[in-house]
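Appendix B. One record, verbatim.
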Amino acid sequence: MQYYIEQGQTHREVLEKIQEKYGDAYQVLSHRTIPYGGFLGLFRKQGVEITYIVKEEQLKNARQSEIQQEKQRILEQLNQTKAIQEVLEEIRSLKTVVLETPVQEQKHETLEKIKELLELNDFSPAFIDTMLQCIKSNFSIEDLNKYEKVEHQVVEWIGDSIVRYEMQKNNTKPRIIILVGPTGVGKTTTIAKLAALYNLGLLGQPACSIRMITIDGVRIGALSQIQKYADILGVPL
């Protein structure tokens, strides 16, 4: 068994020194008053000296307990750090989602009706988008509420977008005439009329060799209708 000695100015001070080193794992054997401090033997005061032993088993258990507590503290810090990292990752993910998600544009009823009307008449998506952009650029929110006004303007824009080509006389080179338009505007009938004019030479020029081609494979009866015209005119289809 090993004995230890600790000195100080007061009994309490000495006990605090011992407890700082060994906690409660000690046992006081004796204490006495001694001269303490001073300089070169002068100005010395009375102090306290305590003799004690250390309880090794209790000290060992105390050390292990301190180690476990320190481990627990470190684990708690790691868990807190991990939780913070998870929150940061979640925030980053939410930020990414917000930045990558396109802003849903508020749709006006008039725009939707115009779009539906153009789609029903087989206008291309690109042309429809162009018309909608023109409406947004030229009409205020208040004017958008006036559907008939918007519709009238769209019809004018469609008319302005149609390019007319004058027929050239005495043109001996092969020509291709393409008719494109929405359903029900008379494309098939117009094709038959043009075929008759050129085939019969009714334009003040010799009769031409005519061929008619259709790519309408959607509308019911489209092929049979133009085939009927071709048979009447004697024109290959």
